[in-house]
Specification:
Blueprint lengths: L1 H42 L3 H4 L13 H8 L4 H32 L5 H10 L9 H11 L5 H25 L3 H9 L4 H12 L1 H17 L2 H6 L7 H6 L2 E2 L2 E2 L1 H21 L1 H8 L6
Antiparallel strand pairs: 1-2
Helix pairs in contact: 1-13, 3-13, 4-7, 4-10, 7-10, 8-9, 10-14
């Protein structure tokens, strides 16, 4: 009896600990999702209900705020198209630059490789407002203000250090012996990279691209300061609902929902690929 009781006690403790961790995980998840839920609920309210100082969870939902948000200015689709072009374009250009750079540093390192990697990531320590004036003057002289090309270049330079670091870490998890074997078989550097290394690192490259796409889509500082209308993204569209007439909470929330919805849906469907890429090489 005593031995049986002693044997069952650790199991009970383990079960209680697992339940506690599960509840804690749910609590953290609900806390993180609550702001998004609040924005969605506010978007379904009227302006009068949304502006009420008393939180209301029971109300008659309406889509009037979404209709008003879609009809405001030049429309939602103009800004959405700019966001897709600049975010996707910067991601593709960033991968095209990050892959060969990371490949060279991972498989053909030099004594300056570590310094180069640290220098690249150190550029992320500089606040964007610190380089706003020189970037603005250069863009004005080159005629790149309020252009999709200019914004794509900014997004690419913004995400490139992170992309190089991530791709480099994935390449480092691939044994160097594979590259040496390909060279012995007569494969060139380009053939080894495209036919051998890239297929092996595909999950990591996919997660890198998804992360860069999300970062570019969510970028607001450069969109607000370097564009006016022609290249304005959804960040500018959302900010336009704050005007001299006042702050319309329902329409602003509806615009926010339409801004985050595409990238949230993409992240939901690509979550397995992203997790697989982020854990690439973690288990040998």
């Amino acid at each position: 009896m005593t031995a049986s009781t002693v044997d069952q006690t650790p199991g009970r403790k383990s079960g209680f600990g697992g339940t506690l961790l599960t509840l804690l995980a749910w609590l953290i998840g609900i806390t993180m999702f609550f702001p998004i839920l609040w924005v969605i609920l506010t978007a379904l309210k009227t302006e009068q209900t949304a502006f009420s100082m008393t939180p209301t969870f029971i109300f008659s939902p309406t889509l009037d705020s979404f209709k008003s948000a879609l009809a405001q200015g030049s429309g939602y689709w103009h800004y959405a198209l700019n966001s897709v072009i600049t975010a996707l374009g910067s991601t593709l250009v960033g991968l095209a630059l990050a892959i060969p750079a990371a490949y060279a540093m991972a498989f053909y390192p030099s004594k300056r490789t570590d310094f180069t990697l640290v220098w690249m990531v150190s550029t992320k320590f500089i606040p964007a407002v610190g380089v706003l004036i020189p970037v603005f003057l250069v863009y004005r002289s080159l005629g790149l203000l309020d252009t999709r090309l200019g914004l794509t270049m900014l997004f690419t330079s913004m995400n490139l250090p992170i992309m190089v670091w991530m791709v480099y870490s994935y390449f480092r998890d691939i044994p160097v012996d594979i590259v040496e074997a390909a060279s012995i078989d007569g494969a060139s550097t380009a053939q080894t990279m495209f036919r051998v290394i890239l297929p092996l690192a595909l999950p990591g490259l996919a997660s890198t691209g998804l992360l860069a796409l999300i970062l570019a889509w969510n970028e607001s500082f450069w969109s607000l300061t370097m564009t006016d209308y022609h290249a304005a993204t959804l960040a500018v569209y959302t900010a336009s609902f704050k005007s001299g007439e006042g702050l319309f909470w329902a329409r602003l929330s509806a615009a926010s929902v339409m801004t985050i919805a595409p990238i949230v849906v993409l992240g939901w469907f690509a979550q397995r690929q992203m997790v697989r890429g982020l854990t690439f090489g973690a288990v040998k």
